Amino acid sequence: MNFELTEEQQLIGQSARDFAKEYLEPIAVELDHTGNFPKAAVKALAAHDFLGLLLSGTFGGAEAGFVSYAEVVETLSRFAPAVASIVNNHTVAAYAIQQWGTDEQKKQYLPGMAKGEILGATAVYEHGPTPGVGANALVALKQDGGYILNGKKAFVRNAGEAGVYVVFATTDPALGAKALTAFLVKAETAGMKVGAKAETMGLKGCPVADITFENVVIPESALLGAASEGTVIVTKLLSIASVAEAAQTVGIGQAAVQHAAAYAKQRVQFGKPVATLQAIQTLLAEVASDCHLARLGVRNAALLIEEGKPFEVEAAMVKSFLVRLGSKMLIDTCQVEGGFGYSEFMPLPRMFRDIAGTNLLDAPGDFPEKLIAASIA
Question: Judging by beta carbons within 10 Å of its beta carbon (0-12, 13-18, 19+), is residue 143 exposed, middle or buried?
């Protein structure tokens, strides 16, 4: 398997680097301080075709493929991981509609999502142990001509900014997650209320909030896929998200090691740059090696997705690998920069907070290990 990028993929990656330098680097610090949704950056992403990378040309998408998409996510994450997170959640929602939507649903949403006129989001999690279980579980009861939704979804990213939500609800409270079903719910739907934005540790600028559903009536045409197919859909979406988030982690780690390496060449101790010290070289080499190996794992999983092959185990592996090594990469680079690296006027603390978010906000903690263990012959 060849992990070298094609000429087209390299050009897309270069386009993402140029975009990030122009639009994201100038706002990264302010974004971390204010947490305001970066509307201008998202509008620019749409204008540069970064919101429709995985979508068919029929709907105005770029049809770039998942390898190119992972390259773009990694690159955006080197500059502003929160913006990459906004793109990830939008793209996962668009992917769900393209894969499981009806022709009418695709025509209704995908052209606007490719143009950035409609931002997407997914509402998977709840405050119970698993979707469909617990006092606040979102329940979709069948009625004439459609469904009525009651309950709450938790930790929804792009909440309050999205125009359409891919929402998972159980259609039978007695069955819980076994009756999980996916729906497309418009942001303006009566009875759907976005709660206060959560104050997250990192990835600030990508809004996170709970959403309450009170007697929300949706038509039969809002059903995404078949009834009770929600578990199949959400499992696939979480695997897709795992690969994209792994690319985010690689991007943050790469930015950290590059900053630390540049600092080590400038910082002089005992009459010479600290970059000449073996201990510093070891720390930098380990982080660079981790990024390189993780990038190969991401590209492997991305290529499997692109070719329509089973990829869930590989997605779980890169997720598990980077959950363990993501924070370590930031600890090691911070050690290179010493007390200065620990200071808030340097970028590493911000990167540390952001890398935690890419590892914690999606996919249950035991998701990668269970899937990997089950695959071992």
Answer: exposed
| Least confident interval from 2-16, 142-156, 174-188, 262-276 | 262-276
CB distance 82 to 354 below 8 Å: yes
What's the rounded Cα separation, in Å, for the pair 321 and 262? 26
pLDDT in tens, 195-241: 999 999 999 999 999 999 999 999 999 999 998 899 999 999 999 99
Name which of 129, 90, 135 is nearest 109 in CA terms. Answer: 90
Which two tokens mark 75? 């690159």
Note if the pTM is more than 0.85: yes
Give me the residues paired with residue 180 across strands: 170
116-133 tens-digit pLDDT: 999 999 999 998 777 878
Helix axes 7-19, 66-79, angle to 10 degrees: 30
Token output for 263 = 């600092």
Q: CB of 250 within 8 A of CB of 298?
A: yes
Q: To which residue do tokens 């143009």 refer?
A: 115
**How many other CB atoms are there within 10 angstroms of residue 145's CB atom?**
10
Q: pLDDT confidence of 364, banded at 50, 70, 90?
A: very low
Question: Whole-angstrom Cα distance, residue 170 to residue 181?
Answer: 6
> 224, 105 in Cβ contact below 8 A?
yes
Annotate 159-209 with DSSP letters as a single string: TTT-SEEEEEEES-TTTGGGGEEEEEEETT-TTEEE-PPP--SS-TTS-EE
Instruction: For strands 164-170 and 208-219, give the pairing.
Output: unpaired
Q: What structural domains and CATH numbers belong to the chain?
A: 7-119 (1.10.540.10), 121-229 (2.40.110.10), 231-375 (1.20.140.10)
Residue 51 has pLDDT above 90, yes or no: yes
